Amino acid sequence: AGRAVTDVFRYHWTPERVAMTADLRAAIHWTLVEDNELVLGMEITAESLRSYLDASLMDEYRGYVLLALEKAARAGIAGTPLESKLQVALSYAFGQNMDRPGQRRPTTASTLALASRLDSAADKIEALYGMATGAYGQGNYLEALTCCEEIRQLAKGGLEPLSIAICDRLSAISLHALGKHDDAERLAARVMHFESDDLQRRFQSEVPFGVSMRIQPARIGWLRGDFENAWAIANHAIFRAATGHAFARCQPLGMAAIPIAIWKGDLKTAACLNQELLDQALRSNLPFWRAFATAYGSIIDGQPVLPGTEHAILLEQTPPLMDIVGA
């Protein structure tokens, strides 16, 4: 367990370290699940967020984070920076996965309360970043915008680039979801060419900005009736994501290309792209994107989504997908 957490701190679990996931899982089980070294297990869990993102195992990871938070009082970490890190991790996990009714969710108030106890502005920004990501993933777009404004107040001096990398990026996708397309397009254009390599790993995204920030202009272009340009932008995003993280390859398909093809009535193209999305989601164990592929498949095949069915439940558990299908 000690070796596992040392490796986490040293390498920050870049994609090259994903092969160590089995060791990490064993360490978490021995320390946290089996109650042998609770605090150490919580440290390992908090610091392994990026590893689980890279390995596309966020559903498993969320279970560990929830367990760690349940045991926080017993371990004596309640109200400490470690609890804040676990809260941040939980926010990310909810943003990257489907909703699970009855599971504990972080709230803006609790995140702000914990963030206020952190010493550095960067740590406070990380906490709010996780909250904003989780809020967007759960369809709480106004809450995501509120978190972004809090971050802007903290992103001063050397942290100022985070105003673009985090605030403008998350504001763009949230504003688009709220129908404020002109503002969203302006922010997306600003972020699209931003160089993120110099940012700390914790502030980077698995989806390159050149990919994620082309999704909004593509969708907005279609809404304005400029299908040719919208289609070109969506395909450019797919091309740029071809060698990236699995989540990056799925995002332009699920959020732009497939719905645009469906809206246009080109069901043959939509079916081909949807099969690509489904294959990627199954191969990389991404239930979030499998839900998208399943819902799109029903639409393409002309099957109604009846209340109480598996497809209806998938929609309820994935708010961003519900927004797209509803549109």
Beta fraction: under 5%
Structural class comes to: mainly alpha
The count of β-strands is: 0
Q: Biggest sheet, in brief?
A: none
How much helicity do the residues have? over 70%
Q: Low-confidence spans: pLDDT under 50, at least 5 residues?
A: 6-18, 98-104
Helix-strand topology string: HHHHHHHHHHHHHHHHHHH
Radius of gyration: 20 Å
Structure annotation, total helices: 19
Mean pLDDT value: 82
The multimeric state of the shown protein is: single chain
| Overall shape | globular
Give a concise summary.
The chain has helices at residues 2-11, 21-33, 38-47, 49-54, 58-70, 72-75, 81-96, 108-115, 121-137, 141-154, 161-177, 181-192, 209-223, 227-240, 246-264, 267-283, 287-300, 310-317, 319-326. With 327 residues, it is mainly α.
Topology:
Elements: H1 2-11, H2 21-33, H3 38-47, H4 49-54, H5 58-70, H6 72-75, H7 81-96, H8 108-115, H9 121-137, H10 141-154, H11 161-177, H12 181-192, H13 209-223, H14 227-240, H15 246-264, H16 267-283, H17 287-300, H18 310-317, H19 319-326
Helix pairs in contact: 1-3, 2-3, 3-5, 3-7, 5-7, 7-9, 8-9, 9-10, 9-11, 10-11, 11-12, 11-13, 12-13, 13-14, 13-15, 14-15, 15-16, 15-17, 16-17
Q: Describe it for me?
A:
With 327 residues, this protein is mainly alpha-helical. It has helices at residues 2-11, 21-33, 38-47, 49-54, 58-70, 72-75, 81-96, 108-115, 121-137, 141-154, 161-177, 181-192, 209-223, 227-240, 246-264, 267-283, 287-300, 310-317, 319-326. The longest helix is centred in the C-terminal third of the chain and has 19 residues, at 246-264. The chain is globular.
